[in-house]
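Possible regression after last week's pipeline update?

I re-ran a chain I had predicted before the update to compare outputs. Posting the input and the new output here so someone can diff against the archived version. Not blocking, just want to make sure nothing changed silently.
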Amino acid sequence: MDLSDVIALGAKHVRNAAAEEVYLRFGYDFTKPVNFFGFINERCNVKCRYCAYWRLDHYQQEMTIEEWQRALLSVRDFVGRFSINFSGGEPFIKPGFLDLLAWCHGAGIRGGVTTNGSALTRRNARKLVAAKPMNVNISVDAPDAETHDYLRGAPGLFDKLNQGIGFLRQEQENQNVRFPIMIKPTITARNFRTAPQMVDWAVGAGATCVNFQPLERWTRETYDELWIDTENEQTEFLSVVDKLLEMKRNGAPIMNSTPTIKEFSRYFQEAPRSVDALPSRVGLQTLFILTNGDVQLGFVKPTIGNLRKQRARDIWYGPEARRARKQSLSYDLLPFLNSASTRKSIRDRMRMAAILMRN
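New output (post-update):
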C-alpha cells in the first residue's frame, strides 16, 4: 500500500461517512459499499476446532473464476476502483484462485487473501507475489507449534506456514514487490495468554502487523472448551487486554483499533456492546460476496441479491438491501467482533493504513 492508495482510500471513506450521516439523519440513501469480502469456497484442508466448514456434508455451489471476474467488474462499475479480501474455506485449494488474484491487479482491483498458510510453498509464493496482492493475511493462533497445531487440527502446520512467510519475503525481495503480511490470531481460552507474545513472534517472523479476531461461537468446542468464560479466565483476560492496549500505545503493529480491543472482554462476557459501538454501520459500508454469488450486508442477513444474476448497483439500492440496511442499524453484532463488523473512525482507518505502509 503506497501513499496514493492511502489518499484514495481516505477520500472514499470520507465521502461515505458523509453519506452515512445523511442516511442516518434524513433517510436519503447515497451510500456505497467501501469494505468488500469475497468468500471463494467453503472447502478447507485443515480442521480448526472452532470451524464447521470441514464438517459440512454439503457445500454451496461455487462460482467459476470467470463468474467471479464478471461479478467483480460489476462492483467496479458501481464503485470505481476498490479493494477486496478473499477468504474461504481455504482459497488456495480453489483451482485458478491465484490466476484470479493476478487478474484483479490487471483490472484495477486490489485483491488480498486470508489463508491458513498450508499452501505457501516456494512455487505458490512466487506466483502469489507476482500477482501483486493488496495484502496476505495468515491465520496463526499461537507463537508455538503445539498450541497452534492443536487449535488448527493440523500437525506440522505451524512450521509450514512459518517457512511460507520466509518464502513470501524472499520473493518480495526477488521481484521487488511490496505488500503487508498480516497475522490473524483467533483468541480462545486456549491461547489468549500468548496474545502479547504473538505480536513479538509476528515481527520476528517477518510479518507486518497483527489483527486479533475473538472467537465466534459456532461449533461444540466453542461452547465446551474454547470460550473464555470462567471468572479466573476473564480476570486474566482483562490483564491481557490491558497489555495489548499498552503495546499499541507504544507503537506495536496491532491493527485492531483501541475501542475494539477494549470491547474484547465485554464480548466474552456476552455483555451488550458499548454505546460508542452503536449504531452499527456495517449495513452502510460492507458487502459480502458468498461462494455462489449471493450478497449480504456484512453479517446482516438475509441475502439481498446475487451477482451472477444482478448488477451490483441494483443489488445495493434494491428493496431487499434497503430493508436489510434499516434492520442493521439496530443490530448490535454481539456474536461478531471482527474486522468486518467493528466500527472504525476515519482516524482509525488512517492509523491502520500507516501501519500497512511499513512493509
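Follow-up from reviewer: compared with the archived run. The mean pLDDT is 90. Marking as no regression found.
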